## 1
Amino acid sequence: MAELVAQLALIHEAGASHLPTAAGCYETSRTDVAGVYAPAGETYWSAANSAAASILKDAGQNISDAGDVLRLLAWELAERDGVTSRLLTRTGLKEIPELGRDGWSDGS
Amino acid sequence: MSGLDPIDDVLASVSGDGYIERLNGKISELMQKLRDGDGAISEEGSGGDPSQPYLSTDHLTEVLTDLVSVDPASFDAAITAYSAASLRLGADQLHDEAVEEVNPDTSAASRVTDYVQKALDTVAGDGTPGDPGWSGASATAFEENFAKFYVGPGQAVVNQRWMINSLQVTMEAHRAVHARARADVEELVDKALEAAGMGDDLSPGGTAEAFVTVVAAVVGVAAAGVGATTAWPIVAAATSGAASILGASEPEEPTKYDLSGEGAYWLFFDIQSAAESIKTARDGREDTIQSTVETLTEKFGQVRAKIVGPEVLDARGGSPIGYQGGEGGLDDDYVDGYHPPA
């Protein structure tokens, strides 16, 4: 059972930290591309940069969504296996994270 | 490659205000020589079409300075931004063999995908009825819509880098067009001064003669970005290869233009004609760059799914976390098919 809790903590960490970090890098890249200044006033560059930035935004959203999936997976597995309290202890959280597209917190 | 200075050397020579100050001095000297050489040549010219002042050194100066008005250094920030954006994608966050090959310093320990894969392995089970692992519809959706694109082959990352690198390389080509134009104008002015100085006199029938090299090249590099539609990843991953691609795209032999220098009167028109040739070449390359960028933009839309990958939706086609009505809950059966290890 201790191993299971460790596994769930690993899944939680991947979803709560690593993938959001990666998504954040995508957002930084998106900002870089969206902010590219088109020299000499050629506006066609703006359309290209906007298209590329939009794609990077969607890619970052994919990664963020995947992080949500893993977070949810960890807590659902913990609930199903009856180890929620142990996962809370392992992750240092006080309560089960609130999950939702409009934001979530670890409640710590 | 012959007849062309390396683009990096040209960029170093013509970027920044120093070039403008240097060129302005040469143009002033040249215009004075032309005026001294033929009384018909003056600052204001001698009438004719107002848009093409006849024998006006002020107008000829405007023509030349307009050709060099765009500083190649103004492209540097854009190119740096593209490079940073591209290198950030996948370098430390996502695992991909092609990216790893280009960036051998990628740390396996820091790669998110390796960590995520390890996490997923913990719930993979062994595929038996007693230990199916996370194997329901949601697991399949996650595998198909995310893991295969980002954790597995990483094709999405490679394609994203292709997208950004295509823009970067094309922007480098754009910068090179203006750099070559600046170099062409300076060579024109240098050769014109040489022609004026060689003549015994600058009256009609003088003997001075020089050649001006007109270039304003760089087309193929843009085509390389657009053409890589069937085998995109290779060029895409080779971010640092942009410069070599750029160099390979330029013509081997530049166009030569004759400054007869047979007197100030004819030298004036030779300079004007050469400047027009440089402008035509530059504008043609500009058109090619614009066409390429527009084609790239269209291509991004056509292959958007390949670059982004599928949306990470759950089995019901809704939010991956079952978010409904303002509440996210743990009772959405997301862990369908999972059973605790026996």
## 2
Amino acid sequence: MTEKLMGNPRNAYGEKLVELGARYPNLVVLDADLSKSTKTILFAKKYPNRFFEMGVAEANMMSTAAGLASCGKIAFVSTFAVFATGRAYDQIRMDLAYSQVNVKIFATHGGISVGKDGASHQMIEDLALMRVLPNMTVLAPSDATQTEKIVELMAEHKGPMYARVGRADVPVIYDRSYVETLEIGRGMIVEDGDDATIIACGTMVDAALDAHKILLKEGISTRVIDMHTIKPLDEKLILRSSRKTNAIVTIEEHSIIGGLGAAVAEVLAENSASIRFKRMGIEDKFCESGDPKDLLEKYGLTAKHVVRQVKKLLKN
Amino acid sequence: MAYYTEKQIKELELLAVKIRKYIIEMLYRAASGHPGGSLSAVDAIVALYFAHMRHNPKNPDDPDRDRFILSKGHAAPALYAVLAELGYFPIEELYHLREINHMLQGHPVSLYTPGVEASTGSLGHGLSFGNGVALAGKLDGKSYHVYVMLGDGELDEGQVWEAAAAAAHYRLDNMTAMVDRNYLQIDGNTEEVMRLESLREKWQAFGWYVIEVDGHDIAEILKALDEADHKENMPSIIILNTVKGKGVSFMENNVDFHGVPPNEMERNLALEELDMLQKKLEASM
């Protein structure tokens, strides 16, 4: 395969925040001693007055952001996904979701591709935790370009939102014009086909696209959906795909419980869709330290695994 | 410094009795809720809303208003009664506390109730939220002040101390916290459940200006609030030495009335006592 152009969603976020800082004088940013990793440091340098370093105290950071938002601020809050959602869950529930304030959580280091830090830092439950909260929008952008667009939309939309990206550089999938029409709550058909549908989010969209190419060579055509919005979920697109193709595979860098795959399963089951279906993700276990590539391989999250799964489903 | 006449203070004391009567009736009709911590918090909330804060019931969202955040959300009846008495919403709503299809939830919700600044009830959040409001005020060059009332049992929560550190770090002199120091929490005496003392030294060590007053002496409370408002460069905290269940003899210092409402007999007795107190006050005016 030819070398892919790479980009980093964290950098895209940091740079976009700086740009939005000029557009929105009421935009503020909070971080919990991870601004160099989440890239909010770029905003901090440009707008020191509107950046709040909160120290290693995520619960306090989340409620403080809610207080700022209650005074008309657009508050972006960043830290690693594991601390954002796990450590500060009650604060998100009470002060953000229940109160419907304009706080945007942008979490980095989601999923197992965080790598060597180990399972303590590999967040595979965040989409589930955020999805069950009423009023919460849940997003998982797939590349740097889409991240930029999604951050823009987060600033425009009112209400609490959660977005997560990974740590690593990821291949650039889209050019700017392609994501310009992106809407929150509408999945994107990136490739189309008739045999099976692969619904992916975040870092797994690229793997799904690779699987699409490999399968095509073997005479199997797949539709690939980039489901950047986990909630509200594009139910219509899922149901249309269930009628158009013979199988659906979901893939996410997240537990198979409670995330994208579970959300798709709920839609299919409640609409009595009769279709072959498989959730791919982390199978209800904690992973381990290791090189991101090796981890994705060991825990079954590569294009090769998707290919195998699609073929298996279509054979049944 | 603001000056209050003896008559003004008496009027506030009378209002506090009236609020306590509302609380008893509300909790009796709701047949659930928290009398002890509502009654201990009344005098400070009355002092704030009726004499100290800049606010307008006709314009609850005025961006320049002072803010009061009830971090100990279970004392909601005290806040609701004060807000209703001020005209934020009809008095009638008070008697539908905790009722389905009605506005007043068991714990305060900012979305539903005019005048309620923050949704509380899960302890430990309010000071952090207040810090956010105070930071916004500084950022926007506003002169409003933020008041946050904490329970003493609530100070067991780690988040309170995260917020205490942050308020001092950001030199939030537009923040005044208050602790309703009634020494009782659900499982018993605060010092037996999870030792809090020395409270004054703890807050001082975190970088706060500490004032300690009798939390049922409205003149003292007002003096302390003034002092806190004028303290520069650091946040202030007023430790309100209070009595849980204050104003109703059989509820005072009685932990059984933390989360148990009065029955009919207890309600009648309580209202009788408060009526007597009211008459005594009126006679002295």
